[in-house]
Design goal:
By secondary structure, the chain is an all-beta fold. Helix content is about 0%, strand content about 60%. It has no helices and eleven strands.
């Protein structure tokens, strides 16, 4: 089992910035994709950003140019830098990782979520 601990959420005014972090517990595995999702009240969870093991990134259209995902493999950490925040970015943000254990088995794990609230 992989534990994910998120931090960095909070309340910010529109136009402000936040940086989310998600640290994974160490183990006998390699990490493939690292992802950030978000879920706003009354809405489905949506994929915000993805970074592959090779550093390739993809973003939801709604955050392109404002959010940046990055990872530090040595620290087993994924980050989400959020700039120019809008009230529509208000949601609970979840990190998600895909791992491949050295046994060949795959796993998919979620963080507990961190609240981001953007006031107008």
């Amino acid at each position: 089992q992989v534990q994910l601990v998120e931090s960095g959420g909070g309340l910010v005014q529109a136009g402000g910035t936040l940086r989310l972090s998600c640290v994974a517990s160490a183990g006998m595995f390699s990490i493939n994709d690292m992802n950030w999702y978000r879920q706003a009240p009354g809405k489905q969870r949506e994929l915000v950003a993805t970074i592959s093991n090779g550093g390739r990134t993809n973003y939801a259209d709604s955050v392109k140019g404002r959010f940046t995902i990055s990872r530090d493999n040595a620290k087993i950490t994924v980050y989400l830098q959020m700039n120019s925040l809008k009230p529509d970015d208000t949601a609970v943000y979840y990190c998600n990782i895909e791992v491949r254990y050295y046994t060949g088995r795959y796993g998919n794990y979620w963080g507990q979520g961190t609240q981001v609230t953007v006031s107008s």
